[in-house]
Predict the structure.
Amino acid sequence: MNDFFVELLGLHAKADTITTSQICWRTGFISLVAILLLRLSGRRTFASSSALETIVKFMLGGLLSRAIAAAGPFWPTIAAATTLVVVHRVIAYATYFFPALGRLIKGEPSILAEGNHIHYDELRFASFSEQAMRAAVRAAANLDDLSKVETVRLEHDGSVSVIKKEKE
């Protein structure tokens, strides 16, 4: 039985000796592994655009593609992908319990504008133009007038949030 799976998945094959059939079977198996890793990693990993989650997404894709194409040893590559997800989960828990670590890893939001007062130093530091900020305000709050805005923040994940002034 073990020999059957070794041959089916081409566990001893290299990138230049693996067959199309083995790549197809590996793709199906790795898809199931990816679903399990997705469940282990948590919902925010693939829903968020933060720098940390983006790194995890690219690294995980790179690792799993190596297992599919036989560019690396099959089981150690899956072990590396699992380790990446576990490390990410540990970092997520650590940043929850230690907010200072969260600020170090994830960064902090910056206030781009308060009403009509635009913080040009924050825009420059974030490499964000005034035009891009105004477009984000239009998209996020459907406002074209900054005097109706209390604050405009560039969040740590790169999104822009807008707090509207309360109506008087």
